[in-house]
Structure formats: structure tokens, C-alpha cells
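Predict structure. Input: NUDIX hydrolase, 158 residues.
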Amino acid sequence: MTLQNTRQLPLKLRASHKSDVRTQFAALCYRLNNGKPEILLITSRGSKRWIVPKGWPMHGVTPGEAALQEAWEEAGVQGKAIERCLGLYSYPKDLEDGTTLPCVAMVYPVRVKALAHDYPEAGQRRRKWFSPKKAAAKVSEPELGQILRTFDPGLLRP
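Output follows.
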């Protein structure tokens, strides 16, 4: 494999061992507004940058259900998850002890029916609706940006 091919890999991970990489499940929260998709982004608690809700796998819970649970806790989303991974993105997760952990987030669509005013992380984050193109421009991770930019809810139908 040439260096040029290495640069084209979709994930950028810095880990000493492949077992160091952790998986999270992320929610691409969306709604239709006049027939056009809008994507809900939230701010991270620390740096306040725009992100999608995400969290660790949960025992006995499907990846889509875990993504929906994170969307509820972090953004007050009430809706329905679809068990179809839209793609993955990598990012460095900052831990409380000052270290970073390489993570891969698998993205699952969540159709938003309502947003609650009272939810576990209310007051800790901002949330805002964006067009797919604007949402893609707001996030830091290139792979996530590509997933958001090309999101088409019409392709989710069986």
C-alpha cells in the first residue's frame, strides 16, 4: 500500500494497538420540514463544538436503541431509531483524566417526533436544526460531515 492510498482511508485513528479503539453509537437526528430534511446538532459539553449525540454500547440494547437513548439524554429527542448504520467516523474522545481515546462512532438515523424541554442534559448543551449541507459544515470530523451532507431520508424506506 502506498502512502497516497493510506491517506485515502476513511478513518483516522492514532492508537498503539488496534484493541485501543473503542466503538460508540451516534444518532443522526432528523425531521422533515416542508419535505426537506433537517438535522439536529448539539454542542459538546466541553469545547461547545457542534456534534451529534453519541455514547457507549449498552448491554441488551441494539445499536439504534443505544443511539436513541443518547439522543434523549443529550438532546431531549423523542422519536424512532432505524437499525441501519449510515456509516462511521473516527474522533479522539477526551477523557476526564486528560488522556484521549481513539473512537469510532457508528451512525444510526433517528426520526425526531418531538423535542422535550426537560431531559437529562438540558442546560448543558445547545441544540439547533440545520440543513444537511450546513450541518456538515459545522462538524469537525470529515467522515461525519460526508454522512450528514449526503443524508437522504428517502433512502431509508424498504
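The chain is about 20% helix and 35% strand.
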